[in-house]
Amino acid sequence: MQKLRIAIQKSGRLSEKSLQLLNDCGISVSNGNRTLLASGKNFPVEILYLRDDDIPGYIEDGVADVGILGENVVLEKGNDLSVINRLNFARCRMSIAIPRNEEYNGVQYLQGKRIATSYPRILKNFLQQNNIEADIHEILGSVEIAPSIGLSGAIFDIVSTGSTLLSNGLKEVDIVLKSEAVLVSGNNLNAEKQAILDKLVFRINAVMKARTNRYVLLNAPNNSLDKIISIIPGMKSPTVVPLAEEGWSAVHSVIGEERFWDVIDELKEAGAQGLLVIPIEKMVN
Ligand code: PRT
Ligand code: ZN
């Protein structure tokens, strides 16, 4: 029987969360000490541990079938990859930064400047779209020191908290794109591998949905039920069960993370009491 080969980052910002995701999908990886290739238990996959920059090439060469990596690397290096799922971790921005004491008057600022980056392709596209001619200077690490040593007038790099820019006397002036970890695949999977990938994606969706929702249980007087049900409609509709005390019911439903605290406030206002909020492990529609 064939196995789907999944490439993940060997060590770095993506590694732990990639392994955690596979684990949450019921795939435990047998070889914990990260030799190059490990076999998945309970699911027909093999895990290939690589540098993130090498993952696109391995998939395009057919050595790996799918991979987990930052969208920034997909855009820079993945010519022939399809994004299957966005994974909601390793979020960052790719931005233009300039010395803090300079004034930025929009992208025209970059006209004729030298810009240091490890992402020349993404930067080139951005400059072209904005009709800017600039000199792209590719460097592999520590891009943020380029302006202070006189190597460039601006940089284009990954930003997360912004503290690296700050401590190098730079400021973020233009966000070119936002990135997060994604599951990508090559475009030539055979039917057997495609069927395994479909199963994996089904599980990933269930895990992702569960991570962004909470199960809520509450008690409410029957005369406030209509209002409460309109606030938390749930997956289909909420479960309502009578309490032993006359005139009261318990309501069970699901709340999305993005409006969580607002919804809790609305529920309390509508008369809900004894709220319990519980994490969900998997969510399948
Ligand atoms: O060894 P390998 O090549 O596999 O790893 P790597 O060193 O190339 O990558 P790694 O582990 O640093 O990052 C992997 C992926 O994580 C990136 O491709 C991004 O998709 C994502 N990611 C999320 C980040 C950051 N956040 C981030 N902050 N990648 C890098 N950074 C760097 C950034 O360049 C800056 O220099 O972290 C520094 C600190 O950022 P601030 O803004 O928080 O100070
Ligand atoms: Zn890398």
Topology diagram in text:
Elements: E1 4-9, H1 15-24, E2 28-29, E3 37-41, E4 45-50, H2 55-60, E5 66-70, H3 71-77, E6 82-86, E7 92-99, E8 114-117, H4 120-129, E9 135-138, E10 154-159, H5 163-167, E11 170-179, E12 181-185, H6 191-211, E13 213-221, H7 225-231, E14 239-242, E15 248-256, H8 260-269, E16 273-279
Parallel strand pairs: 1-4, 1-5, 8-9, 8-10
Antiparallel strand pairs: 2-3, 3-4, 5-12, 6-12, 7-10, 7-11, 13-15, 13-16, 14-15
This protein binds phosphoribosyl ATP (PRT) and zinc ion.
Residues 9, 12-14, 51-53, 70, 72-73, 90, 92, 144, 157-164, 179 line the site of phosphoribosyl ATP.
Report on the architecture of this protein.
With 285 residues, this protein is of the alpha+beta class. The chain contains 8 helices and 16 strands. It has a 7-stranded mixed β-sheet. Strands 9-8-10-7-11 form a 5-stranded mixed β-sheet. Strand 2 (28-29) and strand 3 (37-41) form a beta hairpin. The relative contact order is 0.14. The model has no long low-confidence stretch (mean pLDDT 94).
